């Protein structure tokens, strides 16, 4: 299994130039938000974990520029959907290979014990600290 392919520095520069508008602002290629000066991430259009043939090199068409907070890592956005698709693909592959989820052992369990009711049970012997108090206000 080959490792994850990353975009080279010249490819990232070319993708940033592609994402720039006429005024020189960098725009998110998904939603069009101005992300100049903000955190920019280079996203694989097809998630790298789902690519089977990793022998050919990446091109700038295989990626796009996304803002981290608007379209890439925010809840319910591309990374979340990609992670769900990758997990589903792994489950499907395991099922295809005949690997089943582990079954949990089922036993008879633990017996139920009646409650102790320690707070309402009468004391069997007086407390040791009460022994020396003859005139104790507690002895009524």
Description:
There is one protein chain. By secondary structure, the chain is an alpha+beta fold. The protein has a domain at 9-96. It is built from three helices and two strands. It has helices at 9-19, 68-72, 78-96; strands at residues 40-44, 63-67. The chain has a two-stranded antiparallel sheet with strand order 1-2. The longest helix has 19 residues, at 78-96.
End-to-end C-alpha gap: 83 Å
Radius of gyration: 33 Å
Q: Decide which structural class fits the backbone.
A: alpha+beta
Q: How many helices does DSSP assign?
A: 3
Share of helical residues: 25-40%
Percentage of β-strand residues: 5-15%
Oligomer kind? single chain
Largest sheet: 2 strands, antiparallel
Based on Cα principal axes, name the global outline.
Answer: elongated
Order of helices and strands: HEEHH
Stretches where pLDDT is under 50 for at least 5 consecutive residues are none
Average predicted local confidence, pLDDT: 85
Strand order of the largest sheet: 1-2
Instruction: Tell how many strands the DSSP assignment holds.
Output: 2
């Amino acid at each position: 299994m080959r490792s994850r392919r990353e975009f080279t520095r010249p490819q990232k520069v070319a993708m940033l130039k592609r994402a720039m508008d006429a005024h020189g602002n960098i725009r998110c290629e998904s939603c069009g938000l101005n992300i100049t000066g903000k955190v920019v991430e280079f996203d694989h259009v097809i998630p790298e974990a789902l690519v089977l043939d990793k022998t050919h090199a990446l091109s700038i068409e295989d990626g796009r520029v996304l803002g981290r907070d608007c379209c890439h890592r925010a809840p319910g956005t591309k990374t979340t959907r990609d992670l769900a698709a990758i997990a589903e693909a792994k489950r499907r592959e395991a099922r295809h290979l005949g690997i089943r989820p582990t079954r949990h052992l089922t036993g008879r369990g633990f017996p139920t014990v009646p409650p102790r009711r320690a707070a309402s049970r009468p004391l069997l012997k007086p407390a040791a600290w009460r022994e020396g108090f003859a005139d104790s206000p507690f002895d009524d």
